[in-house]
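seq as requested:
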Amino acid sequence: MKSNYMSKFLYVFLIGITSLISSAVNAEEFEATLDWSKRVELSTQVNGLVQKVYAQAGNIVAKGEVLVQLDPRSFKADLKFAQANLKNTDQQGQEAKRELDRQADMYDRSMLSDRDLQIAKNNLTAAQSQHFQAQSSLIKAKLNLEYSAIRAPFNAIVINVLAVKGQVVASQMNPPILVIVAEAKRMIARFYATADKVNSLVNHQGVKVKISGDDFQGKIFNIALEPEQSKAGYYAVDVIFDSKDKVLRAGQKVIISL
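struct tokens:
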């Protein structure tokens, strides 16, 4: 009985070892190059003076965090003016409506001409138009104040800061790039393979990304349909993975293990 048990144990052990060896032999490795999963150049559509630069290259920032702040005083003044103007046009519209009601009552009693009634109607239409324009101006003033702060569009790592305190931003001419960010803790590793190989790959297939002795779990998310012009016969395959807290750089060489 003991001999049979040892024989079965040895058989299972050998099967396991054979499987591991087979997996190691069948595993394929490709050299890949790192790139950012999202890279965004941030600017603004309003004119102003850079008051404060909060961003620093290498910083991890949260979505919505202010990276660069233009001097907000003129934008706040425009907002107050727009609010006051909206209130004024609202009052003018209410007065024009009351006047039309009075004129209409007089018209019904044959105390007013058609022309005078039409003038009252035109005055109400003009007042309403001014009110709508004031509403539009208020929306624009709020947006301009919002745009005076350049914020992170998502959780990001700051790649480069081009804004300088005191810099004049003239966005109507040629909006300058103020900050460059990339998605934090998410990287792309791109490798190239022949058509025969890429035909055996599928999106969302799990792979291993090896970087300086560390392993990261990734998955294929894009397989090119056309060969790379600079690499005849080879197709780009993109792997996305979570880089966790490790500092990685675009252009860095890594190994993809299938």
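Residues 27-40+185-257 form a domain with the Elongation Factor Tu (Ef-tu); domain 3 fold (CATH 2.40.30.170).
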